[in-house]
């Protein structure tokens, strides 16, 4: 449980800083993958599973956009 908390906090506070967009996205993707491999999700083949996957993907898009440098990428935030 502490590892999950640490990963979620790291993702929430992670930002582009001096990284280029590709490097920022790659490092963020690495954190998402670590979190995905740490959390045990129930296996489900129902239609709710695909809705959950869409919601999780949308959360990642928002996390990525929130971490972008505001000055350089403000037009993507709107």
Report on this structure.
The structure is a single chain. The mean pLDDT is 87. With 78 residues, the protein is mainly alpha-helical. Helix content is 76%, strand content 0%. The protein is globular, with a radius of gyration of 14 Å.
What's the layout of helices and strands?
Layout: H1 2-13, H2 21-38, H3 47-67, H4 70-77
Helix pairs in contact: 1-2
SSE class: mainly alpha
* Helix and strand pattern: HHHH
Low-confidence stretches: none
Morphology call: globular
Give the oligomeric state.
Answer: single chain
What would you say about this model in short?
The chain is mostly helical. It is built from four helices and no strands.
List keywords for this structure.
single chain, 78 residues, mainly alpha, 4 helices, 0% strand, globular
